[in-house]
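We treat protein structure as text, and this decision shapes the records that our systems exchange. Because each token names a local backbone shape, the row as a whole describes the fold. For reference, a complete record is included directly beneath this paragraph.
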Amino acid sequence: VSTQSTGQLPTTMFFNRLMASSLRNRALFAAGAASCAVLTSSPVRSSGNLHPKESKIAKAIQCQAPSVTWINNQAYLRPNTPGSKAQYPYVVVGMGTAAYSAISAIRANKPEAEILMLVDEKLVQSHASITSMSTSLLQSYNEWRRGSSAASAQTEQYIYRTDLDKRIQVHLYSSVAIDPQCRTLQINGGELHVAYDRCLVATAGAPRVAPELEMWSRQDHRVNTLSTPSDWIALDMLGHHIPVMVSGGGMLGTEIACTLKEKGHSAVLLAFPEDGLLRNYIPKRLSYLLSEQLKKAGITIRPETPALTPPPVDQLEAAPSTLSKAMGAPVEYLVVASTYVEPDVSALTAPAFVHDSTNGAVIVNKYLEAGNGVFVAGNAMSYDDVLLGKHRRAQRFDHAVQSGLIAGHNMSSGSVCPTCHHVKREDQQLYTHQPVLHSHAEFVGLDLLAVGQVDSTNIMVGMYNKTDPAQAIVYYIDNRNKVVGALTCNMNANLDIASAMLGRTAPAGAAAVAWLTEQYSEEAAKTGREDTKFEETSFDLGQSGRAQPHNVI
């Protein structure tokens, strides 16, 4: 996917990395996380090597090492007050991927700048080392949780080191509210007030899990919602003899089911309410083809399964037996795998901030500013996708990195008007990047790459390889007849060709099939690559009755 030159990480580099991972170097995706400092009972941390995509970030970021208390071999930060200093040029709320990307950009522009980093204490207390997880499970964590999580190997690298730059202060918070008019933050209900010149909100968000299911998981260790790194570690350590039910037919649920089977679990059941696997994202024909691949691998599939209802507290012990009877298969452990992450915009409740009613995020302008010196990055922002011609929210790891870099650069570049304090725009950059989604389960031969809005409420046009129908390209067309998304299945090297159609207007109705096939052939000819022969095509009108915002990723 080509983008304008905006100082972002080269997209071609990212594609090259994805292409390589689809062949023999899949483990590279997790190598950075696996080689980062491991959280142990020793306070000494080695820096290790980061993911290739984060090398630029690693070179630029330096953070202060906050006070650490060691309790039961777990590190908990003491809330160290920023002393008597009441104003900072830069404040960053959050400590996930987007936050660190922004810090790297600020450091590049203003090496001597003082930065206050505000960290949600709940997320720090749930921190656990993920670096010992199996490669396949760690890859899923990287794509679906790391970019929106404040607890990651990257956090270990920068928060728990002992030799970090004291120009960054780290402060825990239980609540934070931003007043954009006065340019101040109220921390912990007024315990501390801090003024800022520029503020970034890059909060983590949380997986969408029904409150009753979350409560069930707290009452019963046999229920896992994959909400925290500790949940992922518990799943990785689960005995292979234990029959597992995975609830969720989305990309994460599919990956988890395949990973468990690959790890040697004797019985894996995948249940979901949709009429087919991944039906929130792909056409019915492709869904059927992929379902057959999972069945051949020994995974039991139960589509159209009603939403789970937690049992009464006095019946928790018998819950596995009840599930087994309902599913017609043994179940002793339940995994609730939600692909979607809810944005955390609790710091942005002031009337000056505009919230997007379709996705819950805060609307930003083309420079990623929400208003009066407050910027937003990662999954908490709703931005104007110029190519697609609509506002959208993304929760992808790639998006967290790129939006953080642009927000950090724009916060720290350009001269400031001494009267109105607004930044002059001549040095600022637009966010034009098209973030990439990657979902894979190598064990069953499943590898998906996507750009744009991949959602089955749109019209979906599927094109299937003549020699291997499991190799396919899917286009997504909205109600304006505009191509808003492209997905490749087991055809990673062709994503750059497929994505060239984004933003183009297609003919109405089924005529779009022939038009897209012709457009694809023309784009393939431009690259000099051999044109793929598509034997069959499919045309799906989409699930217009489903609420779109709840599944857009």
Remarks:
- The first strand starts at residue 68 and ends at 71.
- The chain has a mean pLDDT of 78.
- The two ends are 18 Å apart (CA to CA).
